[in-house]
Design a protein that fits this description.
The complex is a heterodimer of chains A (97) and B (132). Chain A has helices at residues 16-21, 48-62, 67-85, 92-96; strands at 31-36, 39-43. By secondary structure, chain A is mainly alpha-helical. Chain A has two domains: 12-46, no CATH class; 49-87, no CATH class. Chain B has a single domain (5-128), classed as Rossmann fold. Chain B is built from eight helices and four strands. Classes of the chains: A mainly alpha (97), B alpha/beta (132). Chains A and B meet through β1, α2 and α3 of A and α1, α2, α3, α4 and α5 of B.
Chain lengths: 97, 132
């Protein structure tokens, strides 16, 4: 375990031992993953999926739709798809009707 | 060492793609760097697509790109007979195709945002034999 200290403008120095062990050089890009509860994970790479999701979030905002609304629509879609794909399955609800 | 295999319900897939903050997106990042194996079924992809077509059509392409970038494996859906025999797994029959696909894929976990249907009844996890 190593302790590091944050300095001005949030700068922290990555310990030399880890830099050497993982061959990390100046200019290396990291992704910080917030695990919650004050814990972070630092991954030495940039993620394509981050770029995709930034674009997707922008599209969603422009469409004026929230994730909660999508989840509600998803339940309706799930019901429709079950009827379409598994219409022959006998369930307690379709046996009553 | 065998990678942890996580099946994403449609709610987790949609949240992971459309929100850069949150646990589902972190799973997609770990899928991209191959720390874990991510799995979905054809049913999950299809209903996620249909949902986005209705509410945010531009994001249908985004969904497909994410599935590729995060290296998802897409497994086939259960048959009518398999669904019929496994209706006992979860209260709402509409959820059986997803839960059963996850069981058949022998995943370690199922990730979902749907507390009401998947998490409120602890017996679902017990019957499925998968951590939810």
């Amino acid at each position: 375990m190593t302790t590091i200290q944050m300095r001005g403008k949030g700068t922290i120095t990555f310990p030399a031992k880890l830099r050497s062990k993982y061959k990390l050089q100046e200019g290396e890009v990291f992704t910080i993953i917030d695990l919650g509860g004050g814990s972070f994970l630092l991954k030495p790479r940039a993620y394509e999926i981050d770029k995709i999701s930034i674009r997707a979030e922008k599209n969603l905002k422009e469409d004026n739709v929230t994730l909660e609304e999508l989840f509600e629509t998803l339940r309706e879609v799930r019901k429709e798809r079950f009827k379409e794909k598994y219409g022959n399955v006998k369930t307690s609800s379709n046996e009553k009707s | 060492m065998k990678k942890v295999n996580i099946f994403l319900d449609s709610s987790a897939l949609i949240a992971g793609v459309l929100s850069k903050t949150g646990a589902s997106h972190t799973l997609l990042m770990f899928g991209e760097d191959e720390t874990i194996q991510l799995t979905v079924s054809e049913y999950v992809v299809g209903e996620s697509e249909d949902t986005l077509k209705k509410k945010s059509p531009r994001n249908v392409e985004t969904l497909h790109n994410s599935i590729t970038v995060s290296k998802f494996q897409v497994v086939p859906d259960p048959s009518d007979e398999e669904i019929q025999a496994n209706l006992y797994l979860i209260e709402d029959p509409d959820d059986v195709p997803v839960l059963l696909a996850a069981i058949k894929a022998k995943v370690d976990y199922l990730a979902t945002h749907d507390k009401k249907h998947f998490l409120n009844d602890p017996k679902v996890e017990e019957r499925a034999g998968i951590k939810i």
